[in-house]
Structure formats: structure tokens, C-alpha cells
Amino acid sequence: MERANKEIVLPTTKYTVQLYEYYLRGDRVAIERIMTDAVDMTGEGKIAKVDTGYKYRMEDEAVKRAIKSIKDGDKVLPIELKTIHDLPEDDYEFIRASLPKESEKKSTTRPSGDTSEKRQKKEE
């Protein structure tokens, strides 16, 4: 099954990028695993070390996994970290703003409608 995708043109390089409209479950797991792998725990369950660069790796992985193709005119560019790191910051942020969003969770505990207190009549 082919995933739905959209096409954007990057503002600086004018590359044409096709982005998937949603992530697969495996994509989400791989992106989140970067964060959990960044923490080393001791045998007592205490944090021994945190690799603080995990945030940037998660962002890059999210971008990489959302891209279906990158074209510079007729030339197809490889979808790899080097290509992503070689993008101007404006183009990178443009892609990040266009990434698939996590769907809102359905909640049965979320209030519906207006939850503000209503004025009640004073008893006389």
C-alpha cells in the first residue's frame, strides 16, 4: 500500500520534497527509541548518564523518515543525513513545519463544550 504524500518546494534551495502525510508505527518507535537509548541507567535504577544530543537526532530522524523523495530539478538526491544536514536552516525548518503531526488522542475524560462556571441565581 502506498502512503499518501504531499509535495513542498523549499524556500531557499527550491528543492522539491515529497513528504508522507503520516508516520508508520515503526517510524514513531524508531524516533522515540533515540530518546530512550540516550539514557544510561545504573543497576539501582538511577540515571548514570544522559546523551543530551538526542533531541537533534530525533528531529533529524523524524525529517528523514517523513521524506519520500528530494529533487533538485531532475536530479534525485539521496535521503540520508548528509543531505538533510547540508540543507540551509530555513529549508530544514520548513520541512519540520510540514511534518506529519501526531493525531489528537481520543479521550473520554476530556471535557466537552464550555466548562466555565455558570452564574447561579442567589437565593433570597
Q: What do these coordinates show?
A:
The chain contains four helices and six strands; from the N terminus they run ββαββαββαα. It has helices at 25-37, 54-66, 81-85, 89-97, and strands spanning 5-9, 16-20, 39-41, 47-50, 67-72, 75-77. A hairpin with a 5-residue loop joins strand 3 (39-41) and strand 4 (47-50). Helix 1 runs antiparallel to helix 2. The longest helix has 13 residues, at 25-37. Residues 106-112 have low confidence and may be disordered.
Average pLDDT across residues? Answer: 86
Could you give a short account of the major beta sheet?
Answer: 4 strands, antiparallel
- From the alpha carbons, calculate the radius of gyration and give it in angstroms: 22 Å
* Cross-sheet strand order for the largest sheet: 1-2-5-6
Based on secondary structure, the structural category is alpha+beta
The run of helices and strands is EEHEEHEEHH
Overall body shape? elongated
Keywords:
4 helices, 21% strand, alpha+beta, 32% helix, 124 residues, four-stranded antiparallel β-sheet
Structure in a nutshell:
32% of the residues lie in helices and 21% in strands. It has 124 residues and is α+β, with helices and mostly antiparallel strands.
Helix-strand layout with pairing:
Elements: E1 5-9, E2 16-20, H1 25-37, E3 39-41, E4 47-50, H2 54-66, E5 67-72, E6 75-77, H3 81-85, H4 89-97
Helix pairs in contact: 1-2
